[in-house]
Amino acid sequence: MPHRIAVLALDGLLPFELGIPQRIFGRAFGQEPHEKGRSLYEVVTCSVRAPGPVGTDADFTITVEHGPETLATADTVVIPASYELGPVFDEGRLTDELAAALAHIRPGTRMVSICTGSYVLAAAGYLDGRPATTHWSHADHFQRLFPEVRVDPDVLFIDDGEVLTSAGVAAGVAAGIDLCLHIVRRDHGTAVANDVARRTVVPPHRDGGQAQYIRRPVPDTQFATTTTARTWALGRLERPILLRDMAQQESMSVRTFTRRFREEVGVSPVQWLTRQRVERARQLLESTDLSIDQVARDAGFGTPTSLRQHLQAALGVSPTVYRRTFRAAGSG
User: Is the pTM value of this prediction over 0.85?
Assistant: First the structure.
């Protein structure tokens, strides 16, 4: 059976963010021959009360056809943002209605929040002692309200195992999309996640550690951008790439290029380059039978030791374990 995802629609919800789980998970299909075209997730939307209308922050309401008992059937629960959280936002406590709804959730269910949905997870105790994020503009308030949560206001999303939190509309693209794509990638590998991204016409991968607030997410037409340098680098990841080489592609000094790059992308050129190489290595490990030595060379790390160190730092596993994990998932 497909993995069942229940999306909890709260009054005052943001329609855009409510639609993210259906848009991403609803377009995840099997890529292996034995599961080609099979839906990997089933997405259902439910309310904290009996089926009926739920208000939004726009000039319309939506009709939700499932009540809170649906939460008991979920493998993953997603809580999108709401602007009418009441005592959850003001006092850090659940309403009786919301507490009763969350009580349906089975132990071990994966919990996910988008933007201010993190307030619900925190008020319910899911984030106690855990790292978490929310929209950067609410981070200070969130930390004061929930001092037991380790808040990181700078990142797009945080994966803490069975509890995952994301920012909202950040850095020009909704961080909730990044988180949902990350979950698809974690569950089913890069090929499936990239296919979803293509269908949705969004960037296939933005690392969770990327900055939420980017000074220039949409390049100013008055200034040169770093797009050419990034495209050039992606076409030669297997070769040595120096910072001055990237700067030369834009006819900039290294200092100017580095500043402009960080303003546009949210990380330094070196950090970005390492993340692209990790992503290339993941794709090769999942989709080819190349040796670890060859994967290291083709991804631009040069040696298996360097590949192992970078993959361990980024994902917490060795190349061999990563390949074995996704090969096992693909054969299941």
Answer: no
